[in-house]
Amino acid sequence: MQKVYVETYGCASNLQDAQIIMGLLQSAGYVFVNNPREADVSIINTCVVKTPTEHRMVHRIKLLQSFGKPLVVAGCMAKAEPEVVGRIAPRATLVSPRSLSKIVEAVSVALQGGRGVYLSDDGVEKPLLPHIRLNKAVDIVEISSGCLSGCTFCQTKLARGSLLSYRPELVREAVARAVREGCREVWLTSQDCSAYGRDIGVDISLLLRSILDHIPGKYFIRVGMMNPLHFKKLELKRLVDAYRDHRVFKFLHLCVQSGSDRVLRDMKRGYSVNDFLRFVELFREAHRDLTLMTDIIVGYPTESWEDFEETLSLVEKVRPDFVNISRFYPRPHTEAAKLNPLPPEEVNKRSRILTRLCNEISIARNEEWVGWRGEVLVDEVGAKGEAIGRNYAYRPIAFPRVSGAELLGRFVEAEVVDARRHCLIGEVETVLG
Hints:
The protein has three domains: 3-118, 3-Layer(aba) Sandwich (Rossmann fold), CATH 3.40.50; 138-367, pyruvate-formate lyase- activating enzyme (Alpha-Beta Horseshoe); 373-431, CATH 2.40.50.140. Helices cover 36% and strands 23% of the residues. The chain is built from 15 helices and 19 strands. The chain has helices at 12-27, 51-66, 76-80, 82-88, 103-111, 156-160, 168-180, 204-214, 228-231, 236-242, 261-267, 273-286, 305-318, 344-367, 404-407; strands spanning 3-8, 31-32, 41-46, 71-75, 93-95, 117-118, 138-142, 144-145, 164-165, 185-189, 220-223, 251-253, 291-298, 322-327, 373-381, 386-390, 396-403, 411-419, 424-431. Strands 2-1-3-4-5-6 form a six-stranded parallel beta sheet, with helices on both faces. A five-stranded mixed barrel has the order 15-16-17-19-18. The chain is globular, with a radius of gyration of 22 Å.
């Protein structure tokens, strides 16, 4: 049996792609090792969302290549920047995110000393492809690939193409299978969950309703990142109502990117700050304990100091629970890469100011949960082996004195006794099952 080493980076969709890669290879008789030196072939599933991430990919590709074993470069870098991979690893086989069904063939070609290039869409819908679940408590179901937006700063469309929604019945069966196999948490993921179904005549609220109405059991659904642009085209009352089901985490990841309407126009985001505020208010009115996550880009080339101050004002007004802050980096083949960037020291300064504000808000929001008692699903094992769980609002709760391996996938009755910036600290009172 030939041995394969796999490493992966990036978003939940990329993680699921890696699990599919492993599932397909396992079905073909390959085995996996944790050390690339022991492998007959290495696979790196890449991400290029930011320039520092790309630099990390280049470093890892060079390192894996240095072991003298065949190399397969999969994922977003293979599709969006094949010329970069070609310069640093000219013998590497390439597999794009929409060519995963070719991974067995690609590995075979690489092992025989050839160089395969699999960058065309294979037309295969992913939800029911075999995959190796790396966390027994959590399954990831990709509901669509690609996006409908045309943002000036982003390579997503270059890497994953335009929107391709997977049929609701396939998604529903994937969720049902996960629940049957003991998963207690299912992530519905894509590059933009709010755009789901616009190419096939459905939407995310109808998909949720279909899952909840047809799949019994005790489990949670986490809806992934959504774009305010496509919120404008949804029947929002229907989506808010779907969130009322106790099996849907009260978690909204709605990426605003800037608090300045002018910058949003320059980014071609397609919505206003007031649109974002209205959507957040609608969800918070219906779900008082909603956990709100958003994304913000600092230092977009046309962002003035006044624009940045508008972003600070928006954050102070909305008080999101968690914020993914990204300093702007020009990405190859995007419109924004043609603009004159702001001085790096200015971007870093703004990033520090915004990070400080977001950290203050996060700890304050978390402190509001101290004293809460309720049911928590243990869905993760921490870096030190501790149990980490989520409550109904998808609040991360760490249990420092409890083994994660022993409780993974189980519900516990717990009390929140302290708060940190990134999580709550809890004590387990009862293991429920």
